[in-house]
Amino acid sequence: MSILICGGAGYIGSHMAKWLHARGTAVTILDNLSTGHREAARYGRLVEADLLEPAALDAVFEAGPFDAVMHFCARSLVGESVRLPLDYYDNNVVGTLNLLRAMRRHGVGRLVFSSTAAVFGEPVRDRIDESHPTAPINPYGASKLMVERMLRDVADAHGLRSVALRYFNAAGASPDGAIGEGHAPETHLIPNAIAAARGDGGRLRIFGDDWPTPDGTCVRDYIHVDDLAQAHWRALGYMETHAGAHAFNLGNGQGFSVREVVAAVERVGGRPVPVDIAPRRAGDPAVLVAASDLARRELGWRPDYTRLDDIVATAWRWHDGAGTA
Length: 325
What we know:
Layout lengths: L1 E5 L4 H12 L3 E6 L13 E4 L5 H9 L5 E4 L6 H6 L1 H21 L4 E7 L10 E2 L10 H20 L2 E7 L1 E3 L17 H10 L5 E4 L11 E2 L1 E3 H17 L3 E6 L5 E2 H12 L5 E4 L8 E4 L2 H7 L8 H13 L5
Parallel strand pairs: 1-2, 1-4, 2-3, 4-5, 5-7, 6-15, 7-12, 8-11, 9-14, 10-15
Antiparallel strand pairs: 10-13
Helix pairs in contact: 1-7, 2-4, 4-5, 6-8, 6-10, 8-10
């Protein structure tokens, strides 16, 4: 197979490229390198291009052909999306619109789309399955939900086959330590806790310790980045026999509190994590855990990393090696 990975120099996209490369798939990476890392795009042919430039997209597709596209390009910081909504709608929605038009012009009929749990907004129950109401509360989540709607409409009108995968909390790094998670700024808990333990990032802030949870801190569902890659791989096969647009929630199905994550980092690294308690952040739900039964049933997907310590260990190994993002 030949796969185009849009955003393949970023955190999840680069792990996807590595996964496909290891299985003998021809990989082309499209990335504007605004947040991605050139050194992480080592598992395919890198083309520097932007989804907001239709002519550049046509040039990429003309150099194909491609059997399918995997789409990871997005601005993805919730707070930034509130401050800069037009940038988010431009990048995430208009960029995807340009991609869909290019796919149609060049006869590529399968797309795996990187969506998010942010499409659900405030949870109305602790475990979130695909029947949960979609009511995003920020422009980031709204932009992703708009794309999901676009995919359904394009499937009905033009026969595009697609799978949208709604991640919960992506975490971890490649088990061999070759690539990992490196955002600027870093907003995710596990890398920030590791940085605090290693003395690289100051003290870790915990936003509230008075939530209605067993230890007073928020509970989240952490899924290893290689388990996400496995799901994308299975989605390719799923589209061979399933027409239309489909969406699946991806998570461990287990919840871990902030304090449990801190304890796991301390166990794995053998160092204390200095913490400060900060006020709660507005809009943070107390518990957010995925119900991924549909993905397990339909895609045949099973996460390999179910223990928090194992997920943290891969992240720590990458930080130890000072690897590339």
